[in-house]
Amino acid sequence: MKKRVLALVMSTAMIASVLTACGGNSDTPDTSNTTADSNTSADSNTSADSNASADNSAAGEQTMDFGSGEIKIWVPDAVTGVTETLCNSFFEAHPEMNGYTVAIEPQGEGDAAGKVITDVEAAPDLYAFAQDQMARLVAAGALTTINGDYATFVQDSNDAGAAAAAKVGNEVYAFPLTSDNGYFLYYDKSVVTDPSSLEQIIADCEAAGKNFYFDTGSWYQTAFFFGAGCELSFDTDEDGNFIGIKNTYASENGLKAFKAIRAMSESKIYMDGSSVGDAVNWAAIVDGTWDSSSAKEILGDNYACAPLPKFTVDGETFQLGGFGGFKLMGVKPQAEAGKLVVCLELAKYLSDTDAQLARFKEVGWGPSNLTAQQDPAVQADEALSALGEQLQYTIPQGQYPGEYWTQADALGESICGGEFKGKTDEELMAALQEFSDKMDALVK
What we know:
By secondary structure, this protein is of the alpha/beta class. 42% of the residues lie in helices and 16% in strands. The protein has helices spanning 2-11, 15-20, 47-59, 80-93, 112-116, 134-139, 148-157, 160-165, 198-208, 218-227, 252-265, 292-299, 337-350, 353-363, 370-373, 376-380, 382-391, 402-416, 425-440; strands at residues 69-75, 100-106, 126-130, 167-168, 171-172, 175-176, 184-188, 211-213, 232-236, 242-247, 270-271, 282-287, 303-306, 310-313, 316-319, 323-324, 327-331, 395-396. Strand 9 (232-236) and strand 10 form a beta hairpin. It is globular, with a radius of gyration of 24 Å.
């Protein structure tokens, strides 16, 4: 299986030129400038690339057989219906490919990678996944490399964060579906007088006897550390292995972030959480676009959204930052070249402007596609607008080892549990150093 996967990954660059010979419509990428068509490229002097060039030169003289069969797709349950509608539209527009039927199965993007890598050969042909799973999927050989004009489409059609999330090293491995996996502030505007100040939010909630929710677990915790100017990121090689780390948590800025989290958690109205559905008696909560309907229902006319506030510690003010996250669609390597073409074209269609707008209208997913982001309805969405403002203060969530999430969750729990109440700066720094040492050990 691994040998077949490797051969198919290398052959993907020539797929677009094959499409040209198949009577494709105007959506078919132009391949006149792809690397696969050049015999003089310094990076194309392998035997595999030579064969690709030879096949490309003959492509105009033959018609490709796309084959027939079933294409299995995994997407979150909320979008199975709209995905089926989009697939029907795709095959209506591409009758030359309609020898395939589509089987759409519900599968949350957060759990997709774990199931795919268990048995890559039995995995679906197309699947949605969260971008933090990319390294594992690449290392398992579960993603086709996206080359040529497909890669250009990914990089040029999406915002910078989503385009970066689709890559490992210099290679593109997926088609972005959303740019909405981040967090911002929902608040009751009859209670909160200044949503731009964390200290004022807490003071207003205390005065009103209302709760303020902020999850100090791994994903949300970075809002403080990154906002204070710290860095914690991992470098991966082309196979998705962790080979380096940038880590400045054990620093003066890290200490300020630590102290700010501790001060927040010691308020009597502070609650450790991030789900509107689970929150009680609240006037402010840090959450995501997925809970916008619930927030509107609870707050009614007092519903309001804003980017995350600033926080002040030791006389210095910082803007809360954090992660920006994305949903992606991957294509599993295929044994038949014809089916691979169909899968790539279908994945492109499912990630293009109209498809992203369809999902926005159906379930409120925030587009990564630059054209879709300018749609008036998207622009008018308060939650997406707040997230859009917040994303300018975030970093695209790259690849992180599983142990990072475990250790960062434990750090947040210990702070909120009062373990560091009354501790000196030296003791807090020692805890940060211990955490940082554990992170550094993940790449040794």
